[in-house]
Amino acid sequence: MCAMIDNLKLVSLKGKEKTLIKVGDVEIGKDFVLIAGPCTIETEDQMLQTALEVKRSGANILRGGAFKPRTSPYEFQGLGLEGLKILNKVGRKIGLPVVSEILDTKDVALAVEYLDILQIGARNMQNYSLLKEVGRIGKPVLLKRGMFSTFSEWLNCAEYILNEGNPNVILCERGIRSFETYTRNTLDLSAVPVMKELTHLPIIVDPSHGTGKSALVTSMSLAAVAAGADGLMIEVHYRPETALSDKEQSLNPKEFAELSGKVKKLKDFMQRL
Ligand code: PEP
Ligand code: MN
């Protein structure tokens, strides 16, 4: 095996129990976790309407972006701290824990006050200062795979977080760049069994960014479940056609309810295998 994988001391599976991370009602790693919500927090009403719908359909954790890593500087950059406050308020109101992405080390200390899980996005996977900063906090971290990253590079980034003293890392496969342009990314579902082989950390899948197309999200969610994923992260908007970011890949509440029902049926079926 590659030396950079052999060198992993803390995230490697060797001799270790699977990491279980208690967030709200779920123990991630043991219970299947369904994370859902809009790409971006736009208004309190948009967040609340969406949150009520995803909770009703079985989501365990609410997502919403406040600091958005946008390709163009002219695109909506998110509401920043105000967005985190809205997310926190809505999460508490409906009784769901919340997760959001942090882009900058300077925002970490403030963000932990409002979030149950801090997300490190694909573009920041190898931002070592940010990894060290979230390694020093007492909240779980959701670490997305960089779009140009190998499994070894990804696991080494998780190692940075554990090395600072934070054992609660959730890995998230969200697709990698390939020559294919029909889909936004190429969702690499082999990440799921590979991570089971290499690490004790839970691995979830984000088919929304993985495909970039709402019509593909349900099939790839079911494929992720069949591959053994510990959970899913799905972008849902109460009115996707009005979404300020990633409208093409966002499910509407009805589509999410259907996805959730199918995931549940597949999980039940898999228990009988
Ligand atoms: C997100 O989940 O909001 C996001 C920006 O995803 P990624 O970092 O995978 O592109
Ligand atoms: Mn998005």
Trace the largest sheet across and list its strands: 3-4-5-6-7-8-9-10
Give me the strand/helix succession.
Answer: HEEEHEHEHEHEHEHEHHEH
- What is the CATH class name? Alpha Beta
Overall spatial form: globular
Tally of alpha and pi helices: 10
Low-confidence stretches: none
Largest sheet: 8 strands, parallel, barrel
Number of domains: 1
Provide the helix percentage: 25-40%
So, the CATH homologous superfamily? Answer: Aldolase class I
Question: Could you walk me through the main structural features you see in this protein, from its secondary elements to its overall organization?
Answer:
It is a single chain. With 273 residues, the protein is an alpha/beta fold. The chain has one domain: TIM Barrel, CATH 3.20.20. Helices cover 40% and strands 14% of the residues. The protein has 10 helices and 10 strands. Strands 3-4-5-6-7-8-9-10 form an 8-stranded parallel barrel, surrounded by 7 helices. β8 (169-173), α7 (191-198) and β9 form a beta-alpha-beta unit. α9 packs parallel to α10 (253-271). The chain is globular and about 50 Å long. It starts with a helix and ends with a helix. The mean pLDDT is 97. Manganese (II) ion is lined by residues 39, 209, 235, 245-246.
